[in-house]
Amino acid sequence: MSDREDRPPTDHAHPTASPAGHAGSEADAPDSQERQAAMFTHLSGLAGFLIPFGNVIAPLIIWQIKKDQMPFVDDQGKEAVNFQITVTIAVLICLVLTVILIGLLLLPLVAIGALVLTIIAAVRANEGARYRYPLTLRLIR
């Protein structure tokens, strides 16, 4: 049995994050309330499918309310807001590109990608992992 088999899996979404159950990181591990709040922060981005700009406003509100009380929500809230800003920019570009019809093809792809990545982020946040969305503008640090 090798030393590698005894170690818990690493978090590939964020190379500097340690897994929740890793020895020595229990003080850093988010509790269930933090994980749940972070999950809802990510999922609140789905409001954009119903309300214009709700995808940015909903996570922004949750993040602003919880950021001082919960460090994990502060981290994941910034990530969720940055991703939703990136999605909004992509949607606006697609709307402009509908003039030459390519936007009609790209808009569903952006919507499906946003939906899938938001769900993945919510699941990972609920597991206590610091998820990082791919291809996201990091405007809020």
Describe the structure.
This protein is mostly helical and about 140 residues long. The protein has one domain (about 20-125). The chain is about 55% helix and about 0% strand. It has helices spanning about 5, 30-45, 55-65, 70-95, 100-125. Helix 2 (about 30-45) packs parallel to helix 4 (about 70-95). It is elongated and about 55 Å long. The chain starts with a helix and ends in a 15-residue tail after the last helix. The model is unreliable at about 1-25 (pLDDT under 50).
Which key terms come to mind for this protein?
single chain; 141 residues; mainly alpha; 5 helices; 0% strand; disordered N terminus
Tally of alpha and pi helices: 5
Summarize the main sheet.
none
Q: What percent of residues are in strands?
A: under 5%
Order of helices and strands: HHHHH
Radius of gyration: 17 Å
Distance between the termini: 42 Å
Q: Stretches where pLDDT falls below 50 for ≥5 residues? A: 1-24
Mean pLDDT over all positions = 85
Shape verdict: elongated
Classify the helix fraction into a percent range.
Answer: 55-70%
Number of strands: 0
> Which structural class is indicated by helix and strand composition?
mainly alpha
| Tally of domains | 1
